[in-house]
Amino acid sequence: MEKRFYIRGYKERVGFPILFDDATYSFEEARTKAREYFGQIAPLCKVIIFEHDNGSGERAARFIYRNESGMPQEIGDWWENY
C-alpha cells in the first residue's frame, strides 16, 4: 500500500496552520501541491507535509519554507526512500 500525505501551511510567527489541505496525495504530488501554495497564498512562510496514518499521531515527512529570496526551499533528503 502506497503511503499517503497531507499538507499544512503556516505564517511566519503563528503556531497554528493557516492552510488545511486534508486531501491525501502521494509524496511527489504533495511536494508539487505545496510548492503551488507558495505561489497562491502570499503570507505562507512554511509548509509541512505530514504522513497520513490511521490514528497513531502526526509524523512530519517534509518541511518547505520560503527562503530569503522568497523561493520555496526544502529541508531533508530522506524522502527519496518513498
Structural summary, described in words:
With 82 residues, the protein is α+β, with helices and mostly antiparallel strands. The protein is 17% helix and 40% strand. The chain is built from 1 helix and 5 strands. It has one helix spanning 27-40; strands spanning 4-10, 19-25, 46-52, 59-66, 72-75. It has a 5-stranded antiparallel β-sheet, covered by helices on one side. A hairpin with an 8-residue loop joins β1 and β2. Residues 78-82 have low confidence and may be disordered.
Summarize the structure.
This protein is α+β, with helices and mostly antiparallel strands.
Outline the secondary-structure elements.
Blueprint: E1 4-10, E2 19-25, H1 27-40, E3 46-52, E4 59-66, E5 72-75
Strand content: 35-45%
Summarize the main sheet.
Answer: 5 strands, antiparallel
User: Which spans have pLDDT < 50 for at least 5 consecutive residues?
Assistant: 78-82
- Distance between the ends: 12 Å
Query: What pattern of helices and strands is seen along the backbone?
Result: EEHEEE
Mean pLDDT: 85
Global morphology: globular
Q: Structural class given helices, strands, pairing?
A: alpha+beta
Fraction of residues in helix: 10-25%
Spatial order of the strands forming the largest sheet: 2-1-3-4-5
List how many beta strands DSSP finds.
5
Radius of gyration, in angstroms, nearest whole number: 12 Å
Query: Number of helical segments?
Result: 1
